[in-house]
Structures are given as C-alpha cells and as structure tokens.
Amino acid sequence: MKRRSFLKTSAIAGGAALASGTIQAQTVQAGKKDFYELREYQLTGGGSKGPLKNYISEAIIPLANSLGIKIGAFGEFSLEDPPKVFIIFAYPDSETFFQFQNELLSNKTYLTNAKPYLELPPDKLIFTRYETYLMEAFDGIPQFKTPEKSRGLFELRTYESYNEDAARRKIEMFNKEELPLFEEVGLHPVFFAKILGGKFMPALMYMLWFDDMDEREKNWAKFISSDGWNTMKNKPEYANTVSKVKRIFLTPLDYSQI
After folding, report:
1. Which helix (H) or strand (E) holds 228?
2. Per-residue model confidence (pLDDT) at position 54
3. How far apart are CA 111 and CA 226, in angstroms?
C-alpha cells in the first residue's frame, strides 16, 4: 500500500531508542517508527461508557491486534461530567494505519462484532463527537513503551509552538537531551510524538505513566531541580520553543492494553 505523501517518514541512519529504562542506540529504519492515533470521545451527558467499551473491546481490539496494533483506553482522573474517554492506537507504522481503515470497511469478523454499535439508532447516542490526532513517533523513542502493571496514573501533555521551527527545535531538544533525563528522574515515557494532524498545530504530544499522583509530583520535582534541566533550558538553540502547555491526567480503563 502506498504511503500518503504527508505521512512519509525518512530513513534515519542512527537513532537513540529508549529500551528497558535506558537509552540504547539503534538504527531507526524508514517505516519502523510508530504511528499514533488519539481519539478523544465526548460522551453524551449522563451517558454510560459501557456501549463504547463493548465496541472497543469486542470489535476494535481483536481487529487491531491482528494487525499488530495495540490499544490504550483511558478515562479522566478528574471525573468531569460529561465524561470523556481517550483511545490511543499504537500502529507499528503509517501503512498499518491505512490498512486498518480499509479493514474497518470490509473485515467480516469486525463488522459482525461491531454490529450492535454500528446499528445504534440516533436516539441512543453514545457520544456527541470525537476529536482525532494523528502523530508520528520521535526518533529518540520510535516505539511506545509498555508501562508496568503498577501504573495507576497517566499524564498526557501537549506542547504548542509559535511556529514550525520552534516545534522542530523542541523535538530536537527531547531527542538529544531531554528524553534521557526523563528516564533518569522517573518520568516514565509511554510515547513521544509529533502531531501531524489535529486541533493543536504545530505541536507535539507525549504520555507518561506513574504509580500514582504522589510519584508524579516527586519525580517532576526531581526533574525541575536537576542540573541537567537547568542547563539545557537556558541553551539559546532551545529558546522560545514552547508557547503553551496542555496537560490531562488519565487513569487506565480495564480493557486498556497500555
């Protein structure tokens, strides 16, 4: 299947990959970086998460897993009303994203499993809408990292930049210097990615996991007070790279694979 022009990845001769809690050198070949899709579902007021859970767990996940795609499912830590559900698709490459879209239209097993969801009448709405973000993994962390079973809290952060060059420099900062420091102080990464299409542009998005909010507060404090951060943040090449930070705290749902 041909790759869409705006999603082409370039061959990277040498990249740094995060593996087993350390930075390990590895070659990142073209098409071997993860491609992510984040869906943010706005459920209807007072609506149940059950029908969406059934659809994702019984129809989406079996099809996705058959193509090597992992699914993360999360609710909001703050329990706002109306509630939101966040679904992350971790594709092994962008070609698999397009293959998956085709399977959603033609795969007989999926269509059978999805029938209760697809045939819901308009007066039985599960959600009012969902927003989608399409992303490509950083060179420095080309594949998502499965969190430990103790994970109880996830932090999803979006960094907007005032122009494309500022966004490029912030990604460079992560790839060259910031990612190793994150691992060192216990800011456990799940993924880091450049947003290719979505609400916030130009921007990047990343997800961290923690055992709980106490660990999160403690380890962010380590990062902010570290010599490494206080040195790199003052380098002129990284000046004015982030114009706005958005963060959301999430908890894993019982059918999440991440």
Report:
1. helix 227-232
2. 95
3. 52
